[in-house]
Amino acid sequence: MTLTPEQQSEIDAQRASGTTTLRATAPGMEQHLYTAIPVLDHGFIRVIDYMGDDAAITQAARVSYGKGTKAVSNDEGLIRYLMRHWHSTPFEMCEIKLHVKLPVFVARQWIRHRTANVNEYSARYSILDREFYIPAPEHLAAQSVVNNQGRGEALSGEEADRVLRYLRDDAMRAYDHYEEMISDVGQQGLARELARMNLPANIYTQWYWKVDLHNLLHFLRLRADAHAQYEIRVYAEALCEVVRDWVPFAYKAFEDYRMGGATLSSGALECVRRMLKGEEVTQENSGMSKGEWREFMGVIEG
Amino acid sequence: MTLTPEQQSEIDAQRASGTTTLRATAPGMEQHLYTAIPVLDHGFIRVIDYMGDDAAITQAARVSYGKGTKAVSNDEGLIRYLMRHWHSTPFEMCEIKLHVKLPVFVARQWIRHRTANVNEYSARYSILDREFYIPAPEHLAAQSVVNNQGRGEALSGEEADRVLRYLRDDAMRAYDHYEEMISDVGQQGLARELARMNLPANIYTQWYWKVDLHNLLHFLRLRADAHAQYEIRVYAEALCEVVRDWVPFAYKAFEDYRMGGATLSSGALECVRRMLKGEEVTQENSGMSKGEWREFMGVIEG
Amino acid sequence: MTLTPEQQSEIDAQRASGTTTLRATAPGMEQHLYTAIPVLDHGFIRVIDYMGDDAAITQAARVSYGKGTKAVSNDEGLIRYLMRHWHSTPFEMCEIKLHVKLPVFVARQWIRHRTANVNEYSARYSILDREFYIPAPEHLAAQSVVNNQGRGEALSGEEADRVLRYLRDDAMRAYDHYEEMISDVGQQGLARELARMNLPANIYTQWYWKVDLHNLLHFLRLRADAHAQYEIRVYAEALCEVVRDWVPFAYKAFEDYRMGGATLSSGALECVRRMLKGEEVTQENSGMSKGEWREFMGVIEG
Amino acid sequence: MTLTPEQQSEIDAQRASGTTTLRATAPGMEQHLYTAIPVLDHGFIRVIDYMGDDAAITQAARVSYGKGTKAVSNDEGLIRYLMRHWHSTPFEMCEIKLHVKLPVFVARQWIRHRTANVNEYSARYSILDREFYIPAPEHLAAQSVVNNQGRGEALSGEEADRVLRYLRDDAMRAYDHYEEMISDVGQQGLARELARMNLPANIYTQWYWKVDLHNLLHFLRLRADAHAQYEIRVYAEALCEVVRDWVPFAYKAFEDYRMGGATLSSGALECVRRMLKGEEVTQENSGMSKGEWREFMGVIEG
């Protein structure tokens, strides 16, 4: 992560200036505010603002005049009930705003989640910084041989060296030419909106991203999953820690019912019932395809 | 407006309990928090939470590390520029959460604005209160004779009396029967989810409604407009005052460029240009239909 | 259901006028087009238009130049894979447009599904018809004694008679007064936008509703569920038949993985694993609450 | 534009296979279906499907049982009224599905329009083609000296040559390395999801994009505007022609009230009124900033 001294001092200034509010306040989030949580080699996540806490979820579910219940245990029970029964609207009553610095190819995956608000740094208007994501050696993975959309072991030896050299050299050369093309010293200077097209997808961009808790949890379910690409998963994992500190009851329910849970098809449920009656169920007599059966075994065997 | 002593004391308790926060705080909104602003005969708007202030808009537009600019004048200039050029995403970075009590027929118009989060009081689960909107005599308006979707003068005399009597008596009788049908004293008691169907559309409901500033301003442009139905317009007008206290620069820009502005068609602009050159332009030589010309005259003559 | 002869002849005219198109066409849907499928006592669903078929789902998933695969079995396999792994965007590539006539209290539940397009008949502009939903005796249910949000046995005897009488008489009286208030014979006539407030929630309204297949399936999962209120469930069930005729592969996958499937929490999965190893698991040693355990037993026992 | 013979023959096959439908059919769109409309050097737009026509807009606005009105003139008048008064929901009742091939930096602007459905070619799963956008000499523009977010004159001479050489050579080298890195000949082969990060933003991607007419017109208003970047504007302009052929009344109203119209602020309207009374209004006595006044003059002088 690279923060300039000016950026760090702006962050420090914001962390120094508390005021009094009557709004719901989450102590765990006050600790996070503004501070940059490092992700990848130059990226970060910063919590810029938040709205609501665990009690705000139950308060909305009850359309109540005051806070949530007096008894904290009731709040937790209700939150678990809401999560278990897919009542999503009370979770939409909490909101978070982040400042994220991330490689462009990660940003392109991230933006597919449409129910969020985004303001991205404009490369039409401004000049991008010379910062590129270069994978650490242990994350320089080979194409998976079993999954077209996955990765296998880390590359090694000379192949790894060559890949890293290509990534670094091509990025540096592309940026050198970017700078040279937009320069107005002794020439007209290419428009920024055109020059940016020379930059590769591992360059870093940044944006403000604002989302409600329901949609954030949906994002985390997909992107903190083991099948997500490593480079977005580390952002999702860092966010999981933030959410845990923000709304601990909701996060615990999310872990139990979403991240740690699994959806079984009608066929898979029927197999479980047969197994519990002592019947020997195999892929052949399960009615499932090989792919489904393998996934089912993964769930059943833990 | 009807708040029970318990409700009022819950509100008082929330207004008494300030804590320290590092988040952006809008002093004008802290004054509003939790307090019920009366609307119509039994309705209200209460601000439950908010995120951001004027500086948060420019901060997001710049994707900056610190607050908005030091110079307040710069923030205002940028906000006006963003509003004028329809840059909507920075305004989406502020959020507000309201508790609203409103008649069902108003709720049905309100909910058409889909880009918002809603939790409504459940009449499947709970029992509705005996509270109905009965128009004040000056708002008991006749059907407009020029506009199929509008209203004219207030009714008067015996007709007004009869209408008010119908509205009151039918509401009371419907509620008496609702109570009688759901009662489980000496009978099974009809399911609440069915009994509610007997209640007329002027009964009050309530909900938590959360929306970002961009979509709220869009709502206000349509619903605080002179052509909106009076009963939703008063909610929109009350909300306008809240927004003015929350983000004064953004609200001023909204007044200038949206509420007080007008969109002219290519044909209307051509007429303005001809008029400014001294030409006499009439409906006949304007190329506009009578309806368009009447609207155009309304804009040009102010 | 009540269609006037004029309405029926408009429908007949539309069914008589085929044209040639190069677009994807679903034979099962051509059969449904325009025809009113009756729901409840006066309601209906009519398919007005549709876009796409099963092949359009795989075509979009592959971003292909031509149709889906030649081999139909491949299309089905891919659709099942997409459904199983929650790849929602290919299902968004099909769209349906419906004309629905439904009681207002059902419309109020329905509209909570926000990711859809709606045009509702305007009671500000037009006069509503004298049509009210009156439950059939077998659906006149008592409040559930175990579930605050459900219903139990049907009412019987004198109680049922009285409830039906209240519902019918109150509706008729409210409508009589509605008509009398808006009449301009010998009086000014109350504005329609006000008079409608006297009408109860079992009056029928109608709308055009357009939605993509992914969001439609989400709607059906929640509203064709056994816990949904009967009066919206019958609409969902009628729609299920339509979808089955439209995209048979997608509907079959939906039945297997959504409607007939179940999501198990991490704790529930752990219990299944212990059971399969022969351990006796009870609510007490399961780590689940009584409510969760009851739901878990319902899933495991089928 | 580069279509392989296989792609072209798939397109030809689809254009050859008409079937009968009872749905609304737009003759102008049947002409466009599947055919690739070239945009930029390798890009295109293909209409894959559409729902509705001009009559479908008025049919939804009226919630009618049959088609739109018999008199075409009534349909057009109503469509113009709806457009003029910002009634957006009837326009949402038409839908279009496109296959678009476009450079990544254009795709990144395009995707900001969130109310649409997208399936993009996956560079995690598949290998991208060696196709890059290289601007034609007349579009190789210098940075604007008056507008931070715009472009000025075309580059010339040796500077132009150098820029084109950089763009071409860097793209080719990046792609050579991309191919070399993912190759599994004699090495493990880098994962595709990683190798793609080496590719610059002028590489072409493709997606299926589906949107309703209201949101499409909003997209066109912003992206067919003179201030939009040239490389996205040409896509928007090609789409304008498609929409004109699809819904001619709606497109004409869009041209008159949106593309050719202008929104004047309350201050600007006041200036127009003063001018029409013969007063001499200047920037100094207008109450407008210099920027606003310049824009206002642009509107008034045409």
Automatic annotation (TrEMBL), chains A, B, C, D:
EC number: 2.1.1.148
One Pfam family, short name: Thy1
Residues the entry annotates as binding FAD: 89, 112-114, 120, 212-214, 218
Keywords: FAD, Flavoprotein, Methyltransferase, NADP, Nucleotide biosynthesis, Transferase
SUPFAM superfamilies xref list: Thymidylate synthase-complementing protein Thy1
Pathway: Pyrimidine metabolism; dTTP biosynthesis
InterPro entries: Thymidylate_synthase_ThyX, Thymidylate_synthase_ThyX_sf
One GO biological process term: dTTP biosynthetic process
Catalytic center residues: 223 (involved in ionization of n3 of dump, leading to its activation)
EC top class, as a word: transferase
Co-factor binding details: Binds 4 FAD per tetramer. Each FAD binding site is formed by three monomers.
Family listed: Belongs to the thymidylate synthase ThyX family.
Protein name from the UniProt record: Flavin-dependent thymidylate synthase
Lineage: Bacteria, Pseudomonadati, Pseudomonadota, Alphaproteobacteria, Rhodobacterales
Gene name as annotated: thyX
